Amino acid sequence: MQGFLDNLIRGWGHDPATWPWTQFVYLFFMGLFSFLVINFAAISGGIFSWAERRVAARMQSRVGPNRVGPAGFLQWIADAVKLLFKEDLIPDEADKVLFRAAPYFMMVGFACVFVALPFSHRLIIADMNVGIFYILAVTALIVVGIIMSGWSSNSKWSLFGAIRSAAQIVSYEIPAGMALMIPVLLAGTMSTQGIIRAQGAWPWQWFVFDNPAATAAFFIFFTSALAEGNRTPFDLPEAESELVSGYNTEYSGMRFSYFFLVEWGNLWVMSALAVTMFMGGWQVPFLPAARLDALAGWPAFFAEVASLAVFALKTLFFVFVVMWLRWTLPRIRVDQMMNMCWKYLVPASFVAVLFVAGWMLVVRAAPLLATAMHLVLAGAAGAAVVLFVLRVARNLRDTGDKFDFTSNW
Amino acid sequence: MKPLELPTMDMENKEVLRRIEITGDMLLNMGPQHPSTHGVINFLVQTDGEVMKRAIPEVGYLHRSLEKIGERCTYNGFMPYTDRVDYIAAMFANQGWAMAVERLLGLQVPKRAEYCRVIACELNRISSHLVSVGTMAMDIGAVTPFPYALREREFINDLLEELCGARLTYNYLRIGGVAFDLPSGYEEKVSSFLDHFEKILDEFNRLITYNEIFIKRLAHLAPIPGPMAIEYCLAGPNLRASGVGFDVRKDLPYSVYPDFQFDVPVGKGEVGTVGDSWDRFWCRVEEMRQSCRILRQALAQIPRDAQIMGKVPRKIKLPEGAEAYSRIESARGDMQYYVVAGPGENAHRVKIRTGSFTAMGIIDALSRGLMIADLVALIASLDVVAPEIDR
User: How far off is chain A from B51, nearest CA to CA, in Å?
Assistant: First the structure.
């Protein structure tokens, strides 16, 4: 973004290095961009809350919210307004300072991630050279917020939720971090844009199909991201049937809505991260990154929109997958959750990193092997998709069920 | 002289609380308004973190003195109240009461009425088990099976509404028969529902029963060996899941159940130990299948004559002190009514024995060493319904 601003200032006929107002321009645009990003985060979180309810309703042969606006789309605004107007209740026995502060920690930890998340070829707030490190670091603030809320609520259920959450998020950061190291190894950079540039637009050019360990790493990362985002099957910190509502039991009104905003907004974060690291990011077919760089004027604008659309579509697909998992799977138990992390995911992620390091040495000697492996893995994934579709068709036939996407909007 | 202080449930809890305080463990009140206690039940959970040391069920939050009401009402007048004994499966409570009074009267119920009763009861058994397996899946965290189960239950509710005008508290049975005959075309409606439902059961199994996480959560969880189940007087699917194939419909036949061919599903420990929570879940799913079989036979064999009420005196007066006892296989197991006739038009004593109450008794013994999430699964797998515990 700094390069963009410098170009802008040069466009006005000043030299950004010597012009006295440069810092003020920076400051103004910092404010503007953070406003835009927080709004993007909040609004996408709100829209996902509507989408999730519609998706869940479709899966459960229900209708879901369809009253407010077309297809109930404005439901999230109605809910937000309702939550804003509700009394901000603070329990008598609560630690009032921590209780008030906890939602902000969540919100800050969540909003900061968007700084380093790419949206399209040029659209990124800050393309840091330690982008992945930065993302992993600021997401840790969320767990601070959860623990604060659980502890300060002075409720046993909240405490259970908070302690579960602390154990879960801290544990799953290790496999998630190790799995993210694999794209970093393959791309040779920690910058999110750099990692996308190292991939291609077509599935066989993505890092997920680079080698078997990278495929495994993708699943490890996705599982860990589900756990870090408190999504089913890892929604133990807020398991309704066990812990009433978990760490946010005592919250109401706007503070409560912060927790849920973060939860739904995290859908975008975890999906965008998966797309960036493993699924080719914004790479547009037939338009390699180098050609995108060279474009100017209106073609550049349309190419930018195309790359934005590609990224958004991939991300929204993963958002849907996360919702799909949530409304399909039961919840696992605390001990099973810890077992899975420490006994399977952590060792597997370490092995995967070592494997990829070795694989890169092998590929340097035989580059053809890399292409062959890409194609084989992408083909296997395609075959898996075909098998899945056939299986679904068979199940539908057995039950005598039928698709219905048109009614009850 | 001071009246003797009887030991009550309350006192025991106070003692428990005192002891928990001494040990320094945490006391967790799970209930009475907890989302997964299936009604208003309280569990005093002595815990040291996630692993429980003990969970003591505290019942009585939903006590409505139904047995006492039964002693104040006339025999016919108590029938609507019996619906409230177990509102998930109200038909069975109807039938237990009707059978007990019919035994007192020495009454013969017309064959068609008996078939109507069986059809209504088996439909109700399916709907009750649907609630049970659906809420169990929800307690494990899978929300989707629950609306699936409730969707099918709605069809049954529609059928029962057509039969008796009510969707929850049916008040369908009468002493000596049933209130209404089957409406015209009812047999076809029920059998087309069954055709649809048997496919849905397979879908349900694909969706949740054989789900890997579901099995991981429930297999080997709180297994009840057969002898222990008998010791704790467990009844119904809870008992049968432990490998004890006792079903009142088979072993102490009543009504027209001897006319039907059906199996009694018994827990086999397919994925874990015999009598674990998964077996209890599986037993209910299989029982729905068997109920479908019974329903198909009942629809085929139902006599065509229109007689649905036996000869019942307008005022039921019985010799004082006459006793009767009825046992039926309710959705929650062996439901028993004990009636002692009083001097007037009402009973001197009514006692109802229900499956949920005995199921509560075993929770304390099973809870040691379980985790809190397991307690939720255990309660759900025992299929306790709060009104049936407290009556």
Answer: 10
Residue B144 to chain A, least CA–CA distance (Å): 6
Give the domain extent around A9: 1-82
* Contact check, Cβ <8 Å, A56/B26: no
Q: Does residue A221 belong to any structural domain of this protein?
A: yes
Number of folded domains in chain A?
2
Question: Do A192 and A272 belong to one domain?
Answer: yes
CA angle A186, A191, A195 (to 5 degrees): 35
ipTM of this predicted complex?
Answer: 0.81
Q: Specify if A297 maps to a domain.
A: yes
Residues of chain B with pLDDT under 70: 1-24
Instruction: For the full predicted model, state whether its pTM sits above 0.95.
Output: no
Residue A94 tokens read as: 């609560």
What digits encode the pLDDT tens for the residues A55-94? 888 888 888 888 888 888 888 889 888 888 888 888 888 8
**Ordered structural domains, chain B, with CATH:** 66-390 (1.10.645.10)
Looking at A346, A365, A384, which one is the last position of a domain? A365
* Chain-centre distance for alpha carbon A316: 10
pLDDT attached to residue B6: 41
A110 plus A195 within the same structural domain: yes
- Does A383 map to a domain? no
Within 8 A by CB and 6+ apart from A390, the residues are none
Scan for tokens 């084989």, then name that residue: A376
For A26, list phi and psi in degrees, rounded to 5: -55, -50
Q: pLDDT (tens digit, 9 = 90+) per residue, A214-250?
A: 889 999 999 998 888 888 788 877 766 677 777 888 8
Residue B317 has what pLDDT? 79
Residue B15 neighbours by CB under 8 Å, 6+ apart: none
| Chain A contact set for B214 (CB, 8 A) | 330
Q: With contacts defined as CB-CB under 8 Å, which chain B residues touch A61?
A: 147-148, 151
Mutate to test the interface with B, among A62, A236, A331 (most CBs of B within 10 A): A331
DSSP A259-302: HHHHHHHHHHHHHHHHHHHHS-TTPBTTB-HHHHHH--HHHHHH
Contact A329 B138 (CB under 8 A): no
Residues of B in contact with A333 (CB under 8 A): 217, 371, 373-374
Contact: B216, A61; criterion CB under 8 Å: no
**Which of B143, B144, B206 is closest, CB to CB, to A395?**
B206
Which amino acid is residue B144, in one-letter code? T
Domain stops at, among A33, A65, A82: A82
**B137 vs A241: CB contact, 8 Å cut-off?**
no
Mutation to test the B interface, candidates A333, A338, A344, A391, most B Cβ within 10 Å: A333
Q: Is residue A408 part of a domain?
A: no
